[in-house]
Amino acid sequence: xxxxxxxxxxxxxxxxxxxxxxxxxxxxxxxxxxxxxxxxxxxxxxxxxxxxxxxxxxxxxxxxxxxxxxxxxxxxxxxxxxxxxxxxxxxxxxxxxxxxxxxxxxxxxxxxxxxxxxxxxxxxxxxxxxxxxxxxxxxxxxxxxxxxxxxxxxxxxxxxxxxxxxxxxxxxxxxxxxxxxxxxxxxxxxxxxxxxxxxxxxxxxxxxxxxxxxxxxxxxxxxxxxxxxxxxxxxxxxxxxxxxxx
Length: 246
Hints:
Elements lengths: L12 H8 L4 H10 L5 E5 L7 H6 L3 E6 L2 H13 L5 E4 L11 E6 L10 H13 L1 E12 L3 H4 L3 E9 L2 E12 L4 E9 L5 E8 L3 H10 L2 E7 L13 E8 L1
InterPro entries: Methyltransf_25 (IPR041698), SAM-dependent_MTases_sf (IPR029063)
Pfam family, one: Methyltransf_25
Protein name: SAM-dependent methyltransferase
C-alpha cells in the first residue's frame, strides 16, 4: 500500500482537530526534554500543527512536515492566525529534504505505525539520521503490540462528537500476524449515506525496535510506557522512544 493511499482518516482536518486537539501529554513531554534553550526542531507527520505550534510559542524554531495537503493547510491557517513563524512543508517523511539539520526530531500521534514495511521504516530512520545534528535526538511513539488484544478480530461501537453533532461509529479491526498490520475499518452513522473509511497500522515488537534503532546509528536513551513517563512493561499499550544519534 502506498502511503498516500492510507490517509482516509484525515479527510476532514477540522474534525481531526475537534477529536484530538485537546491531547497535550506529548507536548508537555517534548517541552520538558527541550528545556529553556531555543532549539531547532522538526515535527514529522505534524498534521494540523498540534505539537508544532506550542513548541513555537515556547520559543523553538520548528519545521513541520506532513504528507497530507489538507492537514498542512489547516496547520498554516492556525499558525498564521496567531502570527507565529512556523514552516509547514508538504513532504514524504521517508524522502525528507530540508536545508538545515535539527537538534531534535519528533513524531507523535503513533504516526510511526504508518510506515507499514521494513523498507518504509528503514527509509524513515535514514531520513531522520540525515537531518539531525551530531548527538541529536529522535523522540517518537507507537502502539505496543499486546498479543491477546490483537489475536482475534474486534468489532465495537462508540459515540463521537463531530461538527457539534453526536454520531455513532462502528469499528472493525483485523490483525494480520504475517505483515504485522492492523486493518481498522469504520462506519460513521450520521444520516444517510453511511460514511466509511479505513486505515492500516504496522505494529513493531520491542526487540525489532531495538535492532532498528541500533542498525541506523541510534541508541535508546529511555523508553516509556506513555507520555507521562510511565514504566514500559510488556502489557503497555504504547511505547515512547527517546533515541540519540551516536
